[in-house]
Amino acid sequence: MRSAGVLWPLVCLALARDVSIRSNSSEPTLDPRMLNETAQRDAAMQNVPLIRLTRYLLSHDRYDIRVRPIIDHTKPLKVHISISLYQIIEVDEPAQNIRLNVWMIQKWRDEYLDWDPREFGMINSTIIPFNHLWIPDTYLYNSVKMSRDETERYMNIQVSTNHWKGENGSDLSFLYPAIYTITCRLNIR
Ligand SMILES: *[C@@H]1O[C@H](CO)[C@@H](O)[C@H](O)[C@H]1NC(C)=O
Ligand SMILES: *[C@@H]1O[C@H](CO)[C@@H](O)[C@H](O)[C@H]1NC(C)=O
Ligand SMILES: *[C@@H]1O[C@H](CO)[C@@H](O)[C@H](O)[C@H]1NC(C)=O
Ligand SMILES: *[C@@H]1O[C@H](CO)[C@@H](O)[C@H](O)[C@H]1NC(C)=O
User: Fold this and answer.
1) Four-residue CA torsion sign, 176, 182, 187, 189
2) Which Pfam families match (predicted)?
């Protein structure tokens, strides 16, 4: 019990120092599972690099999901879109419809997501739920079904820092499966 009482302020100290100066990556991160007291585990958990990184990136002072993620607002944001065809489910000639199972791949740069991996346990890339980040409102305009819920199944976004390239921001990869029923003029002989 006595030793636990001594350990607790030590953990707090490490935590407080981390917030102000940020940890040196060559120091090993304390594994919270090694601690027996719940309070100690909770405190040490705050120091896990992945948790610190996610909270840092998404803190409300830094990131606003409603803002187009570009610092110079006069510049356009380029979204690279590619579609990988997985399966043609159905071709309906009388209705001039075709139903496709595809993987959508959207990539863009978010200038507000930025970190130095050396401050976060050398994490270069992380995964963040799509509903916590700005995402482009791209839409397949000749889709028969208008509702996104019926066609697209959004997934998490991979975020990779551009720190090592000496550039600002992060590159985002947004991949998700979709089943589109699209109209197109069919002329089958
Ligand atoms: C990190 O720690 C190592 C050894 O503890 C030291 O040599 C190095 O200079 C430190 N780096 C920074 C950026 O403080
Ligand atoms: C946690 O408990 C185990 C078993 O009771 C003990 O061996 C270990 O030293 C304890 N760890 C700490 C950090 O107190
Ligand atoms: C992150 O990238 C740097 C530079 O390319 C590399 O040295 C480091 O090992 C990478 N970190 C991880 C966890 O892969
Ligand atoms: C953006 O990148 C430039 C160099 O390309 C650097 O001088 C500047 O400090 C970076 N800005 C931020 C906010 O990281």
Assistant:
1) positive
2) Neur_chan_LBD
Quote the ligand 2 centre to 36 CA distance (angstroms).
6
For ligand 2, the distance from its centroid to the CA atom of residue 31, given in whole angstroms, is 13
Of 98, 108, 119, give the one whose Cα is nearest residue 183: 98
Cβ–ligand 1 contact at 24 (below 6 Å): yes
> Would you state the pLDDT for residue 41?
82
Q: Percent of the chain beyond pLDDT 70?
A: 85
Instruction: For residue 174, give the 3-state DSSP assignment.
Output: strand
- In the reported structure, the alpha carbon of residue 169 is separated from the centroid of ligand 4 by a whole-number distance in angstroms of 9
By three-state DSSP, how is residue 161 classified? strand
Give the 3-state secondary structure percentages of the chain, helix then strand then coil, rounded to 5: 30, 30, 45
Q: CA angle 117-63-150, nearest 5°?
A: 105
Dist CA 159 CA 170 (whole Å) = 6
What pLDDT, in 10s, does the model give residues 118-156? 999 899 999 999 999 999 988 887 777 777 778 889 999
Helices (H) and strands (E) in the chain — how many of each?
A: 4, 5
